[in-house]
Amino acid sequence: MRKTHWITVTKDAKTGLIPASYSPKESCPDSCSLKEGGCYAWGLFYLRILGAKISNGKIQIKTLSEALSGRRMDAKVVRHRIAGDVVGDVEETVQECLEVERAGLTNIGYTHHWQADEAQPLKKWFRASCNSIKEMNLARSMGWSVALMVGEDTPRTLTLENGEKAFVCPARHGVEGKRDITCNTCTLCKVTDKTHDKAVMFKVHGTKGTINKAKDSLITFEV
């Protein structure tokens, strides 16, 4: 049985009220330096429990089609893998991306599995998650758009050593006097001709313990 579970409306304030998928930890590549510590997802108890239930069949798996059928009318984006990755599941994920497009929605996803041959078809929709400038340059040479994990003090915008622009994820929720910015209203991370060469930076986040474990995998910049 395929171990990718969809929900119709995620309650994650950062993403907005959109369909999203989850997979267990075993779907993450061993090459990810955060797999055994530092991942925001596996640092959260409820996501560890959800991943375990998906893995051992103790949850009724919902398909993308089922999630889309009940989506909110204002949903513009579909978020792949809030937890987990695509190891061994690329072909099925490609089909889901095509289904999302047929529904007139935007695919958003990130993968640490981007160096694998099997993952290459996903570069049309996913960003390569990179933990170093070396990784970023390799991903770029392979045709990927990129996402970078950076320190908490990183400026909102940067010009990288290769000349391209990098932007910190602008997500904002619950700030008095300002409108919320979510994945559903932003879509900076989507892969298009206009956004392909824009690197998206995510400041390290999660529990205090998670952030401490992730420090060795952060990209830092002198400003």
In short:
The chain is α/β, with parallel strands linked by helices and 223 residues long. The chain has 6 helices and 9 strands.
In N-to-C order, the SSE pattern is EEHHEHEEHEEEHEH
Number of separate structural domains: 1
Radius of gyration: 17 Å
Q: Give the number of helices.
A: 6
Main sheet: strands, sense, barrel: 9 strands, mixed
Strand content: 15-25%
Q: What is the number of strand segments?
A: 9
Query: Helical proportion?
Result: 10-25%
Low-confidence stretches: none
Sum up the overall morphology in one term: globular
Global mean pLDDT: 92
Q: SS-based structural class?
A: alpha/beta
Record the strand order, biggest sheet. 1-2-3-4-5-6-9-8-7
The CA-CA distance between the termini, in Å, is: 49 Å
Descriptive overview:
This protein is an alpha/beta fold. It has one domain (5-217). Helix content is 23%, strand content 19%. The protein is built from 6 helices and 9 strands. The protein has helices at residues 45-56, 64-69, 90-102, 133-141, 183-186, 208-214, and strands at residues 5-7, 20-22, 77-83, 106-111, 126-130, 145-150, 157-159, 165-168, 199-203. The chain has a 9-stranded mixed sheet with strand order 1-2-3-4-5-6-9-8-7. The longest helix is centred in the middle third of the chain and has 13 residues, at 90-102.
